UniProtKB/TrEMBL annotation:
It holds the Pfam family PHAF1. It comes from the Eukaryota. This is Phagophore assembly factor 1. One of its GO terms (biological process) is Golgi to plasma membrane protein transport. InterPro entries: PHAF1, PHAF1/BROMI.
Length: 423
């Protein structure tokens, strides 16, 4: 049985590990993987139809704990203990829940004090006692009537007209004063662990198409003093097509991994008559997992030729390898009998409502290839670049007719964005 320390508005953990509010999903999963012999039977819960409408949940079924991550930024928003019989809990080093100590209303009063009366929810038959960043829910289904108390009564929970022995059913740790209005806080400094994270990524364009990326980066920096003096550092870096390996290393630092391509599946699109001749060397990627970005280098010139931006959607085969990249891509849109305009594609963009015989509105976009979930493929050629929209349901190259997508269907957000001069 886990023995954990409760820190209101901050964390739940012990001396070996800690789940901290604002922690990225990948770090929480890494803790579970490292301690898999102690923490077992973990479920990953998410919505396949609308992944942005519901929180992403890690359910520790053996320990009665749920970790709720914000659907957008994928940082820890709420820690819920829904079965207190499976875990030991303490506050300031003193247990208030264990096999020998029941988490009764009197015990909570003794451990945390009573600064104001709680709130009774008659529909759920639960009595909620709220502190800043911490809430307890007491089950009242055995009561013959709802609790009665004066709102201004402030002489301790034991003085309220609540039956003795009522025990906690659920406990919540969150940021702020209200569980209903809580949001995932920013990433705490203790979670950086020497890594650099991307707050946002903007795709830069010139007259010919995409020219590179501008990254707004976050790091935990500190001066010559102790770690207690550490503070958040925010800075910007730009990487362009044609930059050398040395340029990228000086801008972004060393990658987490270097991956060499075994074959180039895009040779079929090359105008070279020697495209079928195997090359003596292979292109390679710099993988920046915490930025959610891959950078492809040409094997001969060792210069940047492509960027890959990952959105880390649940269900994707690369899920939890990369952190979500919060990108913005300005797209030059051309419509028939209309002037061109610029729109922005983001991590959460959806396909337009279908207006053409292909089931999607035909647009001209130069230099961007997108993989979108779910339904069918669409290829738009504009000069030197190709826009590929792969919608799950059939494979690229399938010549079957494209049916119309129903208005408002599903959450069709991009999974992987590939940006290059030519494909």
């Amino acid at each position: 049985m886990l023995d954990l320390e409760v820190v209101p508005e901050r964390s739940l953990g012990n001396e070996q590990w800690e789940f901290t509010l604002g922690m990225p999903l990948a770090q929480a999963v890494a803790i579970l993987q490292k301690h898999c012999r102690i923490i077992k039977n973990v479920q990953v819960l998410y919505s396949e139809q609308s992944p942005l409408s519901h929180d992403l949940i890690l359910n520790l079924t053996q320990d009665g704990i749920k970790l709720l991550f914000d659907a957008f930024n994928q940082r820890l928003k709420v820690i819920e203990v829904y079965d207190l019989t499976k875990v030991k809990l303490k506050y300031c080093g003193v247990h208030f829940n264990s096999q020998a100590i029941a988490p009764t209303i009197e015990q909570i009063d003794q451990s945390f004090g009573a600064t104001h009366p709680g709130v009774y929810n008659s529909a759920e038959q639960l009595f909620h006692l709220n502190f800043r960043g911490l809430s307890f829910s007491f089950q009242l289904d055995s009561w013959t009537e709802a609790p009665k108390y004066e709102p201004n009564f402030a002489h301790g929970l034991a003085s309220l007209q609540i039956p003795h022995g009522a025990t906690v059913k659920r406990m919540y740790i969150y940021s702020g004063n209200s569980l209903q209005d809580t949001k995932a806080p920013g990433m705490p400094l203790s979670c950086f662990l020497g890594n650099v994270y991307a707050e946002s990524v903007d795709v830069l364009r010139d007259g010919t198409g995409p020219s590179g990326l501008r990254l707004r980066l976050l790091a935990a920096g500190c001066g010559p003093g102790l770690l207690a003096d550490a503070k958040m550092r925010v800075f910007e870096r730009s990487v362009y097509f044609g930059d050398s390996c040395q340029d990228v290393l000086s801008m972004l630092g060393s990658p987490h991994k270097v991956f060499y391509k075994s074959e180039d599946k895009m040779k079929i699109h090359s105008p070279s008559p020697h495209k079928q001749v195997p090359s003596k060397c292979n292109d390679y990627f710099f993988n920046y997992f915490t930025l959610g970005v891959d950078i492809l280098f040409d094997a001969n010139t060792h210069k940047v030729k492509k960027f890959v931006l990952h959105t880390n959607y649940p269900g994707h085969y690369n899920f939890n390898i990369y952190h979500r990249c919060e990108f913005k891509i300005p797209l030059a849109i051309k419509k028939e009998n209309a002037d061109g305009q610029t729109e922005t594609c983001t991590t959460y963009s959806k396909p337009r409502r279908p207006s053409s015989k292909y089931g999607l509105e035909m647009t001209e976009v130069s230099g961007v290839a997108t993989n979108i979930l779910p339904v069918l493929p669409l290829c738009i050629r504009t000069g030197p670049a190709v826009l590929h929209v792969y919608l799950a349901g059939c494979t690229p190259g399938d010549s079957s007719p494209l049916p119309h997508l129903p208005p408002g269907s599903g959450a069709l957000s991009p999974l992987v964005i590939q940006i290059g001069r030519r494909f």
